[in-house]
Amino acid sequence: MKQVKFLLLLAAAGALLLLFRPEGRGGKASADVTTIEAVDPLKNPGQPVADYLVYRALTTGEARMAVTGSSVTKGSGSSNQSKTWRALTQAHLRTAYPSLNTLGIENHGHSGYTSVRLLEDEVTGPVIAGRPDVLIIETSVINNHNKNVTLEDTYASLEQLHALYSKTLPETRIIFISPNPTTDNKFGPPVNALGLRFTDYVYGTQDFIEENGWPYINIHDEMLALMDQRGVKLTETLKDGIHPNDLGYRIWADVIWPHLSAK
Q: Which Gene3D superfamilies does the record associate with it (predicted)?
């Protein structure tokens, strides 16, 4: 009997030590709960994209992000993939948020693809298979303009893209962005066969997306504004009139960052 009592007292003492140990499991769990609640989308409506990625990393063990669009999403014009807006954004998120230090942003950019072609299985299949928590869709309207896609078909394709990804990836946050500003170039005339300029597509799609209440970033105008602020000419940021060079992609990354991280 004495031995049983001794064992019970020993067990009780051990339990008390665990309970009051500063670095014990209970303290860690409490800290984790507090951290998660701070980025829980249900408790933080309107939270920035970065916080949602942190929440996913903390609750699922991994955050995932993807981008899809045309060659300017793929990174054409850069000296190296590490110099693209996608890679720079990935590096920025990893540095600024410890929970995202292994985050990868999958690249589903396709050279020459219009917004209509972004609906093809070879594009949408890998995006869906990657199960991103955040998906950025660059509207590809540089190609829509140069390939004479009507505004009506452009709007319809964006609506179909949103419907497809909303249905197949219900927990994914979808953000539309415009491509970068361009100059006259060899890929198409300033006014296409439909009598439309590139900016008609930029502002037309912005109006359409915002009327539907979907998140949108006008990269085109914000890049021009930042260039003006820094005293940089548009021609200095482009390799061939369309594709950004390293400087252009750096400005793109600087423009998109506040939209992903600002409280």
A: SGNH hydrolase
